[in-house]
């Protein structure tokens, strides 16, 4: 029996008999507002796993190093064992969300350059926004690691923007996470899905992401199915 190592809001991580690998299991839970809003949607885990695997495959093919080894089944993937940096790495291409709430910026402004943000992944403090100096002072990552994370994230942004544009979706913003293998390799980890990206239809600006749940403006499963359908029909 695989041993449960960690249980997050939407996923579980299991140890395997191979000391260099983990298995990640996608659950059907959705949370928002640091867990304040919580619900379950049958099939969400399957959809996110499917969507995330297609995106990770695309990124790997484009030369981004990721934790992905293989998809085992609808809900489980085999990944390289990494220690996750306690950082939420966020890119914004269009203003919305916490950026507008915090800074009073207008919604929906297309930014001339992507904004790169780091948050300290820590529920007790509400995942506060930090800069490189904070991350280094707290021992979350080194300068060199942060440089690699920033450069890789900007590359990922370009690849994802082009990928979603082909599906007639604008990549508004997204959050990714990185981890480090025992031998010091930094890999893209966690997931990329409508839970962690904001996606707006190019023509109508209709939302195709977790904002439909956060804001109660649509059916989460139907929305995620529509994203997958665009990916499969491209
Ligand atoms: O809420 P905020 O505007 O900061 O979110 C920016 C992006 O990061 C959004 O795409 C959101 O889905 C993602 N995010 C996430 N997990 C968090 C916080 C934000 O996936 N804990």
UniProtKB/TrEMBL annotation:
Pathway: Purine metabolism; IMP biosynthesis via de novo pathway; 5-amino-1-(5-phospho-D-ribosyl)imidazole-4-carboxamide from 5-amino-1-(5-phospho-D-ribosyl)imidazole-4-carboxylate: step 1/2
Keywords: ATP-binding, Ligase, Nucleotide-binding, Purine biosynthesis
GO biological process: 'de novo' IMP biosynthetic process; cobalamin biosynthetic process
Protein source organism: Massilimicrobiota timonensis
Coiled coil stretches, renumbered: none
Gene that encodes the chain: purC
Molecular function GO terms recorded: ATP binding; phosphoribosylaminoimidazolesuccinocarboxamide synthase activity
Reactions accelerated catalytically: 5-amino-1-(5-phospho-D-ribosyl)imidazole-4-carboxylate + L-aspartate + ATP = (2S)-2-[5-amino-1-(5-phospho-beta-D-ribosyl)imidazole-4-carboxamido]succinate + ADP + phosphate + 2 H(+)
Entry-linked Pfam families: SAICAR_synt (PF01259)
Protein name (database record): Phosphoribosylaminoimidazole-succinocarboxamide synthase
Chain ranges of the SAICAR synthetase/ADE2 N-terminal domain: 4-230
Residue ranges of the TM segments: none
Family recorded in the similarity comment: Belongs to the SAICAR synthetase family.
PROSITE patterns: SAICAR_SYNTHETASE_1, SAICAR_SYNTHETASE_2
InterPro entries: SAICAR_synt/ADE2_N, SAICAR_synt_PurC, SAICAR_synth, SAICAR_synthetase, SAICAR_synthetase_CS
Top-level taxon of origin: Bacteria
Lineage: Bacteria, Bacillati, Bacillota, Erysipelotrichia, Erysipelotrichales
Known EC number: 6.3.2.6
NCBIfam families noted in UniProt: purC (TIGR00081)
